[in-house]
């Protein structure tokens, strides 16, 4: 598991502690799940980057990445149902 | 992320109309779970590929043309394209495990590339008549005679010495494969569109079509000549091997010819 995948998985486990075991099982046998963990980490990092940015369009980007983080979470949760 | 990953197999020459129709139907349907924006993303990369502009498919172009980013778009700080590509890849995998399991044409987005690849469901092989002879070298040649072989030279162009050997290897394999009775096609450079169209047309024919990839690699002892064979429509891997040419520069021509003859025989055996 790559660093970004691990960090994304850790974020998910913090956010959804009741699903930790399901996340662990899925991470062990589903490469697409790990790709989504990587994408989730990239989304959260981008949201944090733009939240700190002073660029004029930073608020718009921040909202976009926060919405996207929710969408990726839904993709992930759908896989562990 | 933008670099094309090296592939051990030839990409499918595209039956453009067939693929285009299948992809339009896929993107327009409800079975594939994608946002409208990601449907545009998938349509964009498919259309660009079918139009022969796969080289234009980069994160920057997708960011600007699909996601409406400005000319200062930086995929490093704005990784929207990479993230959405992952979501599309995951959605396609879920679709092909379920509603799309029987689709005749599949689109793949491999990690590390935004250029789609297309897979064709394996067509049934023509049945042999009762009592047909199925053994021996003559049978191999008859099998080869109704078979098209698409040969692709994949040596890394940055290694000029290996490229030179690779060209010799290619010529020798083409000659030897033709001697085995194959209809041989060599994947042309992009400028030679007529030849590319002829290869695409093969996919409309009932006969079997196979892809033979050749490459020469520089190694410490000399050169490694490698080949791999796959069914062009299904992507099924049928065999591969390599031989190391050790010693002087340039390599001995007779040695290359011997290896080429061996490759052609092995391919004929594999498809017989």
Would you mind describing this structure in some detail?
The complex is a heterodimer of chains A (81) and B (272). With 81 residues, chain A is mostly helical. Chain A has one domain. Chain A has four helices and no strands. Chain A has helices spanning 3-15, 20-29, 31-52, 58-80. Chain A is elongated, with a radius of gyration of 13 Å. The mean pLDDT of chain A is 93. By secondary structure, chain B is an alpha/beta fold. Chain B has two domains: 16-120; 136-271, Rossmann fold (3-Layer(aba) Sandwich), CATH 3.40.50. Chain B is built from eight helices and seven strands, in the order ααααββαβαβαβββα. Chain B has helices spanning 16-28, 36-50, 59-65, 80-97, 136-145, 160-179, 193-201, 253-271, and strands spanning 105-108, 117-120, 148-153, 183-186, 209-219, 222-231, 237-246. In chain B, the strands form two sheets. A five-stranded mixed β-sheet of chain B has the order 4-3-5-6-7, with helices on one face. A two-stranded antiparallel sheet of chain B has the order 1-2. In chain B, a hairpin with a 2-residue loop joins strand 5 (209-219) and strand 6 (222-231). In chain B, helix 6 (160-179) crosses helix 8. The longest helix of chain B is centred in the middle third of the chain and has 20 residues, at 160-179. Chain B is globular and about 60 Å long. Residues 1-14 and 123-140 of chain B have low confidence and may be disordered. At the A-B interface, helix 3 and helix 4 of A face helix 4 of B.
């Amino acid at each position: 598991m790559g660093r970004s995948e691990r960090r994304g998985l850790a974020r998910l486990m913090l956010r959804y502690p009741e699903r930790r075991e399901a996340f662990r099982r899925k991470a062990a046998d589903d490469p697409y799940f790990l790709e989504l963990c990587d994408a989730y980490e990239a989304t959260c990092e981008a949201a944090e980057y733009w939240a700190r940015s002073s660029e004029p369009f930073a608020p718009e980007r921040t909202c976009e990445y926060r919405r996207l983080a929710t969408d990726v979470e839904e993709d992930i949760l759908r896989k562990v149902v | 992320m933008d670099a094309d990953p090296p592939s051990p197999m030839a990409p499918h020459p595209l039956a453009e109309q067939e693929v285009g129709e299948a992809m339009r139907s896929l993107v327009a349907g409800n079975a594939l779970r994608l946002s409208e924006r990601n449907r545009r993303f998938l349509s964009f990369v498919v259309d660009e590929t079918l139009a022969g502009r796969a080289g234009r498919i980069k994160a920057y172009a997708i960011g600007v043309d699909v996601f409406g980013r400005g000319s200062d778009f930086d995929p490093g700080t704005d990784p929207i394209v990479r993230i959405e590509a992952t979501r599309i890849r995951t959605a396609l995998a879920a679709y092909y495990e379920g509603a799309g399991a029987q689709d005749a044409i599949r689109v793949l987005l491999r990690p590390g590339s935004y250029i789609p690849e297309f897979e064709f469901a394996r067509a049934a092989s023509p049945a042999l008549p009762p009592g047909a002879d199925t053994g021996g070298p003559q049978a191999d040649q008859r099998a080869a005679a109704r078979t098209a072989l698409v040969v692709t030279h994949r040596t890394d162009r940055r290694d000029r010495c290996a490229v030179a050997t690779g060209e010799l290897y290619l010529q020798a394999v083409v000659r030897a494969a033709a001697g085995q009775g194959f209809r041989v096609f060599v994947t042309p450079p992009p400028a030679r569109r007529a030849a590319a169209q002829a290869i695409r047309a093969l996919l409309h024919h009932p006969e079997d079509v196979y892809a033979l990839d050749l490459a020469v690699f520089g190694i410490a002892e000399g050169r490694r000549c490698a080949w791999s064979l796959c069914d062009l429509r299904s992507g099924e891997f049928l065999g591969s091997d390599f031989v190391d040419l050790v010693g002087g520069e340039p390599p001995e021509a007779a040695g290359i010819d011997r290896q080429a003859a061996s490759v052609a025989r092995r391919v004929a055996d594999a498809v017989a």
